[in-house]
Structure formats: structure tokens, C-alpha cells
Amino acid sequence: MEIISLVSHLWALTFILSFASTTSSPVGPPKPMAEATADDPFMPHAYSRFPEVEKQCRQFLSSSAKIEFDVNRVNGFKPELSFSKGDWSQEPGDSALMPFDGSDALPKSTSLPDPLLLATFMLTHIDLTRHSPNALNVSGALAIAISRNGTFPEVGRYLAPEFHIWPGSSELRILFEGVYTESEKNGGESVVCLLGNALLPSRKDEWVRISGSKHLQPPVLKDDRILLILHYPKTFTLTSRAVIGEMRSLNGFSNPRYFDLVRLSSQLGAYSNYQFGAEKLISKACTPYPYEDDVAKGQLEVYKGAFFCGILNRFVSGEILNVVPNWNCNSTDDYCSKLGPFETNKEIRATDGGFANVGIIMQDVRCEPLIDQNNASSAKVSAVFRAVPPWENQYTAGQRSGLNGLSLSAEGMWNSSKGQLCMVGCLGLGDKECNSRICLYIPTFFSIKQRNIIFGTISSIKENTHFPLSFERPIHPSQLWTKFSASPLNQYKYSKIKLAGAFLERNEPFDFGSIIKKSLLSYPRKGDNSDELASLSNLADDLTLHVPAVGDPIPKNRTQWPFLQLEILSIGPLVGRYWAFQNASASKSTASASPKASSTERELLLNVSAELTLSGKNYTNGSLLYLEGLYNPINGKMYLIGCRDVRASWQILFESADLEDGLDCLIEVKVEYPPTTARWLISPSAKVSITSQRNDDDPLHFNSIELQTLPILYREQREDILSRRSVEGLLRIFTLSIAIFCIFSQLLYVKKNTNDVPYMSLVMLGVQALGYSVPLITGVEALFTRLTSESLDSQSYDLNKNQWYWIIDYLVKILILAAFLLTVRLGQKVWRSRIRLLTRSPLELWRVPNDKRVLLYSFGVHAVGFLIIIIVHFITNSYRPARQEMYIDSSGNSHKLREWGIELEEYIGLIQDFFLLPQIIGNFLWQIKCKPLKKSYYIGITVVRILPHVYDYIRAPIFNPYFSEEYEFVNPSLDFYSKFGDVAIPLVAVVFVVVVYVQQRWNYEKLSETLRSGQKKLLPMGSRVYERLPSLSSATFEAELVSGVNENEVHNNLRENRG
């Protein structure tokens, strides 16, 4: 064995010498330090400053112990001796290390927090060519920052001395080289003594001179007289984990490069092995075990299984824990406003004991499971509890390593017999402040007042130094089947069902209208699936809401929409969600239930628990509510009792004696779901009302909140959308069929009344033909633009493939084509009839109806109308918030929003609704003495145009949930096509029908006499009126309409008139 050991030592020595010879070989000059990277710790360095280092670090070199050297240990030096985001501070004086640009603060702002002072050190190189058995040459880089905007110091890949300053942040990077030593002092420590090379900003008087300029870098000075000393404990324990350092200037006080002493602090990290051994301190805090706090006395159900360490590392490590207000504290303000043992800065003190947005994070959690002789589970646990002020970035807080007044190093034990983790905590750097007791629990059930994966307290071992501080880690319901799927939380304890039942009885009085409504409509309920848990899980999905909301009724002024989330935590016996393939045994057990019992059960009220969150500054009182109550599947209403985490001052909370574990549970929440049937006729929006049951003078009272959501889509949303699309498709087929019948009847009327044909307005027919041609060209049914623009934009790509939908779509297009061709045929007859008039002799052009002035007057009327619409919208939009210029369509594509284009498209639809306007103008100009339009034609087409508005008026409003906020939801009091438009447009169309009827019923002379007023005539008597031509037989007239008939005679008449 000795020979084998000797051989292994000789082999290791040969390997080290050969490696060292290669690193010092003159194959090429060593890289300059400024070009070295931080990736390779064995990068060759010159270490030209070793004589200076030896002089400045002689006190550590003289007392250093021999270093037990091997390659594996050297490889561990770099991560062990490096730290990230430690703390630094500077002693008060006149020579600050670097300036800070506070121009990131708003003018006259007094609530900004103090900037963070963070430091990062990285060991970049270790020299294997040893000059001394007691020291190693090392080099590194230190980044120091002052930051208020969330940035923190980093040591990049390429190292060089740098200084940067910008609003809200300053950063200095210094390169060092020196020695690593070990000593037996202070129980054994490692010391790194380094000399630095930096670009330091000039003195403060220079900073003042540049402070008036914008974001200019101050002048910098090269400085190589900087000494950095870092002390690392050799053993990593509860009381010896801190890394302490100081950086000083070796220049004289009068030197412009001089700066006051800088102190640094951090701790050993994940690459160091923690040694449990604080039993004496733990017994001081936790004897007798378990410590009798309020939780232990209450005998709550907590986790006592064998996987405590796994749960702790998975669900708690690195997570932000919420601090519970001191709601039951009754003492002085200083005592009740203090954040437990932590130092209370101005930001925390401003919460006045409510601790709003104050958190605690557990860092560097180390859990060692143990099993005793009786197979009982236990564990040793070590962690650092760090308080996080309201303003601090949580990610930055989780990365910090400094030990200060906001950090509590802890070590303790957990035993499965009691389920309590009891720890002793030491504040800050050393063992002089180990006066805190920490108790943690992992619950195994949910309730309206218990929604946490972990909760605990921090109390004082000494008497009454601070009020016990409580903290918790709430769990969101959706996390139960994602991150926390393996958590021990698997049951829910209902406690507010009686109150919810009373709430239900007050709001559901007996009346016949409700009975009729219940018999006609159905709401989300358990399905017919024999697996009850799977049915409950599907029902929970339908009742879950993730959708923007708006005030109910809709406010006239545009405001920011809150986003409403209602997550179902439990329903009936089910907690979370259920998947049958994961629980085959449970499926078999529930499948044996009888159909009759299942049917009866579906008609009963269901216990339900949920969590409601509302975003938006106007909804802070309802931003987070824990809910519990009853769901009635017969009418789709949910009656819930709510509890909210009140964040008020401790005085207000203490005076509110009716708080339950610090929660305000005097809240009633009612949720009304839309029916699953007739969604095309009833608004598919959910309504939510939140009401406080407190008196108006109670400081915890808040005004009632009434909201309605954007359309919600149940799991079977495609079938619902298809149902509505099919109904509207059938409606289009019906209206187009009526239109074709009316046009065909007009063609038959023209055949019998040939003398009246020239007096049909070609502009009127052109408007109709244009309306029919647009869908054939663009694929958009202009007839129902208003209807389809809302409900059909939300259809999915898969829905377009539905065979039934395509049958309806093609049938609609065929009918549109037929209507278009019949309208063109009608226009052809009118055009040829007017050509036929030109064959009459003598030729009088004024006798032939002409649509030029009709087109001009019609265009003028509509141009003025469109201009009025634009002006009205400009005025109304001036009272709204600025609208965004882009919107997102249902395919996720962004488009530029041109509001005038939208108005023009809607106005074109209005022109089609008022298709009789050109005919009325033509009748007036031509002073007709005939009946060019059949009653069934102009009345039937008008009915076809009115029917979409009637449908739009009686149906539920659908707003597209896929568009952007400012574009998708229209305000009925301001939008062009509003409820007012659905009433006014049909009324005007009916008036036009009456006018046409009167014009055709009475001839011009009779109408003029009726409307004569004094010596004036409302209708002028022209000298050249359109006189009716002699009657011709229909057969002869049809023959004359054929192209080429009497064509020569027409040309001869025109020649004679020119002559």
C-alpha cells in the first residue's frame, strides 16, 4: 500500500510540474491583463506587481499557514472566493468613491427610495507557479455600483478598468492582482490581499462643475494604488458564513485620487459546504420542542411526511413570502410598526405596520433529511431570510448575498412527529444577534382563510423586543396543477356555506318569470360523464374566467379596463383539476354511481371556492379576494362570501375587531354566468358584483363594484359560435330570398307596365347592384356587415372548415349572384326603355328621364351626411382618452387603425339602407304621373334592409374579445351603429316608403295643389314637364327594346335636331 501511495504522489507531482512548466514556457508572451477573460482561471498572467503586493500584504504573508495544495482544490477556489451582489458602504467623509446622478427622480419627488450599493467580485486567475508554500498569486475583478433603476454590477467576459454613470446608476470596475493566504486566526480564515488598477472619477469639486450638463461622464484619473482585503471563513456554519472586506486608497489625503474607506460584505455561496452544528443555539430557541406558538396550540393539520426537504426546496426556496400585517398588535406605534427583528428603513416604516408589498425571501436553503432508528423522519435545515422592501426588485433581492440588518441567518430542525420547523436566527454578520426564533409549517388543507403552501412566524427569544412577525406563501389555484401539483394540499374545508346560503335566499325570490327562464335556458353544469370528478373538473374550467371587464352599466367616459381573473380552487369534493388518465382507480370508483343519483345530484347546489383578482388602480379594494360559497347550476349564479387581505395601518386593523385572522370577510360576491343555450340572442358576458357589508363610516368599507366581462367562451365554444353563425346564415338566406322575389316581381311589373319603366332611377338600381357585387368581389357580405363584423371575427381557423358553414356560405353567394343579375336585368330594361324614347318624333330631350342630376343631388346629400358623421365623431372622441393607432385582428396580425375608413364602410351600408332616396329625388325632378315601382318591390326591399337592424336591436351585443382594448368594445352611446341607429335608420326608411307611395299615388298637379301655401308652391310648375308618351302594347314595346330596332330612325332624329 505504501508503494502504491508513493507512486500516486510521484504521479501527481509530475503532472503538476509538467503543467506548471507549460504555463511558464516562453512559447509566447503572456496576455495583458486588460485582454484576459474571466472564463479560464489558469490564463497566464505576468504578475509584475508582486514586489508591491509583498510589501502591502506582508502582515498576511508573515502569519500565513502552509497551503495544502492540489489541483482539485485550486479548481474550487474560483467559485468559492467569488461572490455576486454583496453589500458595500463607505465611511462618512469628504472623499466619496464615485458620484451618483439622481436625475432619474421626477421633479419635486420626495418618495424615491435610497439607491442600492451592491458589489460583485470574481476571481479570474490562479497562478500555479508557486513562489511560496504559504501563498498563491491570484487576480480578480471587482464591480461596484450605486443603483436605483434595477441594474446591478456584473463582471463581464472581457475585463478592463471602467467607470460609467447614467441617471439612476453608477458603476466602477477595478482589476486586481495579489496573493491568497490562509491563517488560523478567527477560528481559521482565508485572506485575499490585492492591489488594484482603476479609472477613478475625479474629486467631488469636479463632479459639481459637470452636474449642470446632461449625462456627461466626469473626468477620470488612472489609479494603481488601491488595496483590497477580503476575509473568508474556512468553515461554513451559522455564525461563520460572512465574507468581510475593505478597500482603501494608498494615496495621501490631498491626492485627487484619494477616497474614504470602503467596506464590503457577502457570504459563502452554493459552492461551499455548510456544516450543521448550532445545537446549543437551537435548543435555546426551540426547547421544549415544538415551540408552543399560536399554530401549535391550534392543532392545525400540517405536513408530517418523509419528503419535507423536497417540498421545502421545490416550493419555498427563492420564493417571495408575504409579510402579514400586525393586525392584532396592541402597543406603541414603534413596537407594532417594526418589521420583526429586521432593521426598519423609511420605506418599510411608511407602511405603518400594514407591510404592503413587503416580502421575505428564503435564500440558500439547505435541508439534510434524517431517519432515526424508529424510521421517524427528521431534517436539519439552514437558510437565510432576507427582508425585501416594497420598492426593491424581487429578482435583484433574490440574487443579493450581503449580510446586513435586513438578513437573518437561520439553522434549525424539523421532526415528523410534530411537523414544526423550529430555527434560531442570527441578524446581520455575526453571532451576537442570535435572538430570533423562526417557526415554519406546511399545511395540508385549504380554507377561505388558509391559502398558503407555507406559513410561519419570527418571534424574539428575549422578552418583547418586537411583535411576532408572520409570513406566508400564498398559492394561486392554477399552480395546483402546475408547479404545486406534488404539494400536500389535497383537501378544502368549507366554513362559509351557511352565510352563502342566506345570501342566495335573499337574491332568489320566487316568481314565475324566473321559472320560465329556467325552463328555457341552461347554464354550465356537470356533464353526463359517469366519472364525477372529471365532470366537476370540466365544470370548473367553464366557471373559470380570464377576461377584461368593464363597468356595468357601461360608462360613458372611456376608462382603463380591469382584467378579471376568477380561478376555481375547489368545487364539490374536487380540489384543483382532475385528469382521468392520471386517476384510473378513482374513475372506476365513481363510475359505479347510479344514473338516477347522478342526475339528482346535478340539480343540487354545489359548494365552490375560488380566488378573484382585479387589475387596475380603481379596483384596489377588490384586487385579491378569497371566495367560498354556492353555485346554482339551474340559473348559472354563484353566491360567494369573500375575504380580502387588508393592507391598512396596524391601528385600523386592531380597531376592526371583526377581522378573521387579519382578513376582512364581510364581503359578498355574486357572479352571473351567461347561458350555454341561445348565446346568439343573449349576451355571453358574465356579470360580477362585489359588495362590502360594512357600514359607510367603517374605514374598511368600500363602494360596490359592478362589472360585466367581454364575451366568455365555454369549452364547447366552437359549437356555440357555429350555432350563431348558422342562425345568421339562415337569416341571410331568408332575406336574400325575399329580395330576389321582390326584384322578380318588379320585372313582371315592368313587362306589363311598359310606359312606367323609364321613370325608374338607375342610381337606385346602381346602389343595389353595388351592394350585391361587393360580396362577390371581396367575399364580405355587405348586407350583414354590421352583424358579421362582430360575431364572425372571433371564429377560429378550424371553424372555417366546417362543412355546414361552407354550405350556407356558398348558398348565400349563389343567392347574391342571382339578386345581382336580376338587378342588372332590371337596369338594362330601364336603360333600353329610355333609348326607345329617343326614337320618338319630334325629339324632346327634356321628356326623357335623366339620372345625372339625381346622381348629383344624391351624392351631395350623402356627402353632407358623411361629413356630419365625421364631425360628430371628432367632437365625441375629444372627450375620450387618446386611442391607439394599431389594433390586432383575430389572426394576431396588427393593422393601422383608420377610423374614417371604418365610418366610410358603415356609411356605405347606410346608403344601401336608403336606396329609395335617388328614386324620391328622381320623382321630384321628373314630376311623374305614373307608378314606376311596384309596392311589393320597394316595400319588400325596404323590409329586407330593415330586418338586420331589428335583429341587431333585439340580439345581445357581441364585442370581439380579440381586438385591442380601445377598438374591440364599442360604446353604444357614442358609436355610429348604436341602438339609436337601429331605431332611427328603419324609421327613416319607412318614411321613404311613405314618400314614394304618396308620389306614385297622386299625380304632380294634384300633389302641387295639396301642398300649395299662399301664393307660393312647394313644388314648382315647370314649363317643360315629363309628359307621358302614348301607350304602346307590351309586345311591341318589348320588340323595340331589342338592340338595333329602329336604330336608323333614332340617328336620323338626332341629325335633324342638330340641324
UniProtKB/TrEMBL annotation:
Topological relation to the membrane, as annotated: Multi-pass membrane protein
Domain SWEET-like span(s) in chain numbering: 717-1005
Catalytic reaction list: S-ubiquitinyl-[E2 ubiquitin-conjugating enzyme]-L-cysteine + [acceptor protein]-L-lysine = [E2 ubiquitin-conjugating enzyme]-L-cysteine + N(6)-ubiquitinyl-[acceptor protein]-L-lysine
Chain coiled-coil ranges: none
Residues of the DUF2921 domain: 53-262, 283-472, 506-705
Subcellular location: Endomembrane system
GO cellular component, one term: endomembrane system
A family per Pfam: DUF2921
Pathway in which this enzyme or protein is active: Protein modification; protein ubiquitination
Name this protein carries in UniProt: RING-type E3 ubiquitin transferase
PANTHER family assigned to the protein according to its UniProt record, in alphabetical order: FAMILY PROTEIN, PUTATIVE (DUF2921)-RELATED, PII, URIDYLYLTRANSFERASE (DUF2921)
Record-level Gene Ontology MF annotations: ubiquitin protein ligase activity
The organism's place on the tree of life at top rank: Eukaryota
Leader sequence segment: 1-24
Keyword field: Membrane, Signal, Transferase, Transmembrane, Transmembrane helix, Ubl conjugation pathway
InterPro entries: DUF2921, DUF2921_N
Record-listed E.C. numbers: 2.3.2.27
Keyword Oxidoreductase on entry: no
Segments traversing the membrane: 729-750, 762-784, 804-824, 854-876, 976-998
